[in-house]
């Protein structure tokens, strides 16, 4: 794999090595705090076309393999490929089964044959890919005519409460940046794939305090990965100001954390 650690990322997205290392470290703790990931992936599964019966599927950005196992249950006769850039995630997923093959690979340059899949499924993974046009091109390449790409991702507005609270404390980058819905819309329309559905739905989680949220993000491997983020420990005074600012968002259920979740289903023309 090419060393991308020093390559600037479009839109301030993190380098691939950093993403892979962060999620590898989080493999053991990921499933214990993956409420959002499970809910979003289940919603994506429900959006798959009813007649779809792939002979071979790809779980792109499989993580711990939760949805590889779900795909195996839904399509028991199919051959499954679970692929992730984080080898630590694959080491965790492989003993749990689900897929026929577990492959370390990059969504922007898939190590797969042309027209080898009837389904590419990817839940909450492609937001970490700087070259999303390349992800779509690779999905189109590996799909057979009539094959389906179904993916979920995160959009601008995700964790806006945390971002706004930090903006009251300092001017540094504390929250991951994500693409706008309009960017996803434009890239999907230009991909050569037929767009069946594309929508953004808010998903709100609640926490008793800010530390519960930030600890969960770290356990997921999804804490701040962007260039411009502060280094070193957060001082007590800055943390006190953050907690105070976030309290303005508290409602009856606790402190909200809003995720703007995009769901898309596309098809390769026959």
Tell me what the structure shows:
This protein is α/β, with parallel strands linked by helices and 270 residues long. It has ten helices and seven strands. The protein has helices at 16-25, 27-30, 35-46, 66-74, 87-93, 132-142, 160-167, 181-189, 210-220, 236-246; strands at residues 56-60, 79-84, 101-104, 117-123, 143-154, 194-207, 255-267. The protein has a seven-stranded mixed sheet, with helices on both faces. β2, α5 (87-93) and β3 (101-104) form a beta-alpha-beta unit. It is globular.
Order of helices and strands: HHHEHEHEEHEHHEHHE
Q: Write out the CATH superfamily name.
A: Vaccinia Virus protein VP39
**Which ranges are low-confidence, i.e. pLDDT below 50, for 5 or more consecutive residues?**
1-13
Tertiary shape: globular
- Under CATH, the topology can be stated as Rossmann fold
Keywords:
Rossmann fold; alpha/beta; 270 residues; disordered N terminus; 7-stranded mixed beta sheet
Question: Any chance you could write out the topology, listing elements then pairs?
Answer:
Elements (H helix, E strand, L loop, with lengths): L15 H10 L1 H4 L4 H12 L9 E5 L5 H9 L4 E6 L2 H7 L7 E4 L12 E7 L8 H11 E12 L5 H8 L13 H9 L4 E14 L2 H11 L15 H11 L8 E13 L3
Parallel strand pairs: 1-2, 1-4, 2-3, 4-5
Antiparallel strand pairs: 5-7, 6-7
Helix pairs in contact: 1-5, 7-10
């Amino acid at each position: 794999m090419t060393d991308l650690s020093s390559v600037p990322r479009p839109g301030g997205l993190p380098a691939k090595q950093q993403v892979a290392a962060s999620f590898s470290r989080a493999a053991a703790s990921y499933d214990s705090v993956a409420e959002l990931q499970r809910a979003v992936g289940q919603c994506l599964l429900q959006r798959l076309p009813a007649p779809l019966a792939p002979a071979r599927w790809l779980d792109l950005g499989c993580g711990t393999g939760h949805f590889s196992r779900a795909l195996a249950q839904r399509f028991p006769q199919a051959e499954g490929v679970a692929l992730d850039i984080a080898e630590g995630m694959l080491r965790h997923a492989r003993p749990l089964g689900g897929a026929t093959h577990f492959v370390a690979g990059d969504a922007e340059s898939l190590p797969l044959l042309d027209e080898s899949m009837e389904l590419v499924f990817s839940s909450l993974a492609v937001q970490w890919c700087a070259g999303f046009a390349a992800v779509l091109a690779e999905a189109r390449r590996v799909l057979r005519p009539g094959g389906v790409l179904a993916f979920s991702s995160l959009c601008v507005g995700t964790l806006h409460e945390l971002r706004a609270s930090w903006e009251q404390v300092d001017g540094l980058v504390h929250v991951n940046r994500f693409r706008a819905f309009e960017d996803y819309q434009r890239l999907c329309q230009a991909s050569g794939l037929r767009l069946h559905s594309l929508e953004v739905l808010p998903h709100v989680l609640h926490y008793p305090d800010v530390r519960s949220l930030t600890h969960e993000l770290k356990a997921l491997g999804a804490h701040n990965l962007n260039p411009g983020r502060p280094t070193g420990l957060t001082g007590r005074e800055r943390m006190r100001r953050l907690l105070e600012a976030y309290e303005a968002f508290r409602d009856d259920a606790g402190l909200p954390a809003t995720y703007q979740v995009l769901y898309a289903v596309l098809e390769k023309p026959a």
